[in-house]
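Q: Hi! First time doing this. I have a protein sequence and I read that you can turn it into a structure. Is that right? Here it is:
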Amino acid sequence: MDAARQLPGLVVQWHAGGMLAGPHARRITADWRDHVLPHDQRIAQLTGQPFGSAYTDVLLNQVGTPLDSGPPITALLAVQAMDQASDQPQVHALDLLHRIQHAHYVEGRTISDADTLQQIAAEAGLDPQQFAAAYVMQLGDRTIDHILDSRQWLQRAGGQGFPTWVLEWQTAPDAPVQLQRVDTASFLGQPAVWRDALAQWLLSLPVD
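A: Yes, that's right. Below is the predicted 3D structure, encoded as structure tokens:
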């Protein structure tokens, strides 16, 4: 994601599908730990992304801890709303997303907890009171609507799961939106190659 954000002319927009939100939320169990650890190890091997011992050895052993992606999505929507309302945004939603993921997978923190999310937002440089107010505004229907819209968008783009990368463009301001799903498997762990490939795709897009 960081490599893609380096490209001029490319705007990276996040869409959160809520894989563990609403009725799909769950709690940590021994079976869940046994299920996710091999996948996490595989991801680490392919991408080089770290998984800290506070996550693998501590958090995943805290049976009963909630796993709910709804609150982090609400937090991202809150920051996005703060950005849109400010002439000088403090923190981009994608920056907070990176911080939340690090807090979970490296630091082993419970990111489904609103107080923890407020702490993470403050660590990222956001005003705690402003963030808390924006967070409350995005609770409930706004978060649910975002998840539903994201899942519909994923279906239109031909995506099969999370994460999915899609290029979206128009040949003219009044032209229909075009979508092209991008296979990222061959770029895992190679951010510079991924960035260069994206740059070539941008040059090849048919525009008037």
